[in-house]
User: What shape does this take?
Amino acid sequence: MVRHLFLWRVAPDADPDEIVAILNTLPEKIDNVRSWEIGRHQGDPGDSGDPWHYALIADFDSFEALQQYSDHPYHLEVVEQLLPRFSARAVVDFERAEDD
Assistant: This one.
């Protein structure tokens, strides 16, 4: 299984709820997403520095499935729509063991 982790900070003039709503349309339109979860950072920044505002965690059966998702026309449309609404973003994709 491949885990896709996407972190972002909301741009000052963007609506965070609108970003989440738009992102949550992706698994409805692209059928190879195995699991999908979005969470908002809770608490103060503390000693760890400036936290990301949100995280999206999505699982796929393989790197090929993740690539199909990334290249899907609807995903590309959403990315174009959302890029101006982020002040920063980061992605990590990694293979993980299947849960028994």
Strands lie at 2-10, 35-40, 54-60, 86-95. Helices lie at 16-23, 26-29, 63-71, 73-82. The chain has a mean pLDDT of 93.
